[in-house]
Amino acid sequence: MKRFLLPFLGGIVCMFASCSHKTMVRPEIPILAWYSIPDGENATEERYQELKDAGFTLTFGHIYTMEGAMKALDLSARVGIKSVFMCNELEKDPEETVKKVKNHPGLGAYFLRDEPDNNGLEELGKWARRIESIDTEHPCYLNLFPRHAALFPKSEDYAEHLRLFSEKVNLPQISYDHYPVNKSGDTVALSPYFYENLELVRAEARRTNKPFWAFSLSTAHGPYPIATIDHMRLQMYANLAYGAQCLQYFTYWNPDTQVWDFNNAPITLEGKRSPAYELVRELNQELQKRADVFVGSKVESVYHIGEHIPLGTHQMPALPAHFLELDTQGKGALVSTLKNCDQCYVVIQNTSANHPLELNIRTDETLKLVRRDGSRVQANKYGPLFILTVGDVLIFNYQQ
User: Which of 50, 118, 184, 266 has the most crowded CB, counting CB atoms within 10 A?
Assistant: First the structure.
């Protein structure tokens, strides 16, 4: 099977059939900090180390000058992460600009645009080809609209947008943003389009044989509440359960704008750590301890169970292999089956944004439980009652 290696992710993520658990290299989930350290007085090695300490492997600072972008590359290389490169010169003279940076050890990818509409895709494809004519080692990167954007009144419209992106821009990955946790007054609700969006992006990723990247919200703004670790878990584990191979946070640094009233980012406008910094750090550590489950894995199926399943998803037709019982008493849950070489996994997630999930599970002696610290223990030592907090998962493992 073809293996597509993205070297800027540290040389450890083979997107197809990586078998990373059989190598001596510890697998690592690429984690990107969107709108990270700004240019200027905060562009210091200490700040870049702080970002790395929060569990990020990629930084994207939205820096528009060549001087500032080069400094971001230097600082990234110094602390051992990669930087997504952007500056005005990259668009004005892509060939000459890429020649100057393509061999830099801090380079991760080249940023093109955020949330283009269909009309802009052809020109973006031409821009990407100009960059690729000079550098074939580092990918171009852009981020797509979510399903619920006004441009896409029907799911078919969004599927067409994804298809046009693949055909006209044709990047090595598909990246999109969707922030599903909304708050109105005291009521928190999950977007009805969240799982449909994942279904549609996964379908396009499978059709084109490319990995996809997805987000969690870490900065409150507009209708989106202050991030909790439960709500970030809900987003990140759903992304992974559907097959995401790079995780992204919006944002790391609080944007300096009055639009949308951004607040409570991991790093505030004053440059101080908010409570979200520690939550993001804690979650990233947890995700990396289970990286061997998800890095390079192939999602075999994704189903939902419960009396009411989300829009665009599919009801689970039968129990997963080696399960004797899986009962949520009618409550909602996601069930994903993944394969990573000879290792098989079943991921069960509480899909509620508000309530814990009690479920009864009985298994045969084959299954192991992958605990939060990455260790594994015989699953039939537990049960039958399990309780999942909001967004949390149970991960079971067996060897094929």
Answer: 266
Please state the rounded mean pLDDT for residues 205-224. Answer: 98
φ, ψ dihedrals at 319, nearest 5°: -65, 145
76 three-state secondary structure: helix
pTM of the model: 0.95
Pairing of strands 140-143, 107-114: parallel
pLDDT in tens, 197-207: 999 999 999 99
Q: DSSP string spanning 180-219?
A: -EEEETTEEEE-TTHHHHHHHHHHHHHHHT--EEEEEE-S
What whole-number distance in Å separates Cα of residue 92 and Cα of residue 102?
17
| Residue positions counted in the chain | 400
State which amino acid sits at residue 372.
R
Binned at pLDDT 50, 70 and 90, residue 1 comes out as very low
Assign 265 to helix, strand or coil. Answer: coil
Predicted confidence (pLDDT) at residue 5 exceeds the cutoff of 80:
no
Crossing angle for the helix pair 121-132 and 155-168, to the nearest 10 degrees: 30
Structural domains in the chain plus CATH codes: 12-294 (3.20.20.80), 298-399 (2.60.40.1180)
Measured CA to CA, the distance from residue 367 to residue 345 in angstroms comes to: 9
Cα dist. 33→17, 56, 365 in Å? 26, 6, 41
Comparing C-alpha atoms, which of 195, 212, 32, 12 is closest to residue 108? 32
